[in-house]
Amino acid sequence: MEARWRSSAKPVQAPKTTKTVSFEEVSGKASSSEALPLSLHLTNAVFFSLFFSVVYFLLSRWREKIRTSTPLHLVNLSEIVAIFAFIASFVYLLGFFGIDFVQSLILRPSTDLWNSEDEEENEALLRKEDARKIPCGQALDCSVTSAPIISAQKVVDEKPVKLTTEEDEEIIKAIVAGTTPSYSLESKLGDCKRAASIRREALGRITGKSLSGLPLDGFDYESILGQCCEMPIGYVQIPVGIAGPLLLNGKEYSVPMATTEGCLVASTNRGCKAIHLSGGASSVLLKDGMTRAPVVRFGTAKRAVDLKFYLEDPENFETLAVVFNRSSRFARLQGIKCVIAGKNLYLRFTCSTGDAMGMNMVSKGVQNVLDFLQTDFPDMDVIGISGNLCSDKKPAAVNWIEGRGKSVVCEAIINGDVVRKVLKTSVESLVELNMLKNLTGSAMAGALGGFNAHASNIVSAVYIATGQDPAQNIESSHCITMMEAVNEGNDLHISVTMPSIEVGTVGGGTQLASQSACLNLLGVKGASQESPGANSRRLATIVAGAVLAGELSLMSALAAGQLVKSHMKYNRSSKDVSKTS
């Protein structure tokens, strides 16, 4: 356990004398790899030669017996001698060269022993100082503990003093020298927190740059191993605000938003208030299907067309679906659309993926189908599992038109009084601004799916808070915002149509503690036990509802001329937070 201490008095001085405890002192034995007598070298050579000679002899004899159909258990005197020689040489070599390995497993000292005397002296000094509580950054554990100090990063008088064990110091030096790769630390040490600490220190020495503002403690590095982030050195703190309650389809949701943009949460919250006072919003899921589009090539365009006709033939769909669906108990093939470019063929697979976002799931299913097609189309050359017709993490008309992930439309009727009193504008002004800005202005700009005010703001904030892939904000923010005066012009009808919201409630970043807590707040944590896919679909509708609230509030601020004023009030600060502890 690492501990952080702060003292109101003078800095704690580390002991001047340090006794280094070597592995030999801990174990009481010398390593077998140290200087060997000449006779041992000769003996090793003899047993090496004997071992490989008898192995070769026995293999040759057994091969001859197999060729002549002679039972292997019938052995002559020379074979018996060879077997005993093999056992004897194997035992010798294992006993001699296995000492280091056995010592590393049985006699390896605890890390507590390396600097035991240093720790006792440090702890004695620290007990003389009275620890006091001081203000600290949000989301950091500043409680004072009495746990013993092992290798730790101490903070004394606001200046971190990094203490490392001798073993850690050797690893750091090896990384700096380039003899030990940084990416191998987790597998070699078996301690993800320690690996991150060592990597962080080595990086600081290599670059000469301070990482004091980047937190290391307070994070479960085991949870990201092999799934979320490689070679971690800390984590970035992003504040999470709450907008709501958002009244959507008769239920209230407190929407978590992770952002560093002032006004965003406050503005979305105002939109939620206006929607709630007007009776709430409703949303409908239009489509649910993740896509993957490999590209394959043939020798001629005719052969590419043959495969296109085969895949689009309804009689073959059931067979292809069986092959595809083997990849997962949740994956269900919905359709395949093919696009020809010369002798190249792009196959856009669409499938349902349960509560997972589903990119890995659909990719495995596509690979199954490609392997199956090789039988009837052996001349098919698979160029790539993704040919960009998917289209993932890029603005693309195919997603805007065909949809990808969850396609959702969300609407609400805002009472005229709410527009005037809460949003501080008028129905007529909002309708006119939406037409000239979101529709005409976006068309003049040649926008692709960007017929909205700031849908990506809300999508990104909710995605980061709930563990989604932030890069998929690109296509997930495709949105067209519509506004119309209704009820004889007294009220406002507003809607957002979003054809490609890509979300999941299992897998990836959704498994991390903070993101999982945000999903739990929305009531969509994990997989739905009653109806697979229900949680991810509900999350998509919540995203659309939050976008509706954000669009309503920002457009009202623009119509009322309040945008600059509100941003000057909430989105600017004279405080340099980088200098605060």
UniProtKB/TrEMBL annotation:
The chain crosses the membrane at residues 38-59, 80-99. It is found in: Endoplasmic reticulum membrane. Belongs to the HMG-CoA reductase family. This is 3-hydroxy-3-methylglutaryl coenzyme A reductase. Pathway: Metabolic intermediate biosynthesis; (R)-mevalonate biosynthesis; (R)-mevalonate from acetyl-CoA: step 3/3. The keyword Phosphoprotein does not apply. Keywords: Endoplasmic reticulum, Glycoprotein, Isoprene biosynthesis, Membrane, NADP, Oxidoreductase, Transmembrane, Transmembrane helix. PROSITE patterns: HMG_COA_REDUCTASE_1 (PS00066), HMG_COA_REDUCTASE_2 (PS00318), HMG_COA_REDUCTASE_3 (PS01192), HMG_COA_REDUCTASE_4 (PS50065). GO terms for cellular component: endoplasmic reticulum membrane; peroxisomal membrane. The keyword Endoplasmic reticulum applies. It comes from the Eukaryota. Its main location: endoplasmic reticulum. One of its GO terms (molecular function) is hydroxymethylglutaryl-CoA reductase (NADPH) activity. GO terms for biological process: coenzyme A metabolic process; isoprenoid biosynthetic process; sterol biosynthetic process. It is a multi-pass membrane protein. Its EC number is 1.1.1.34.
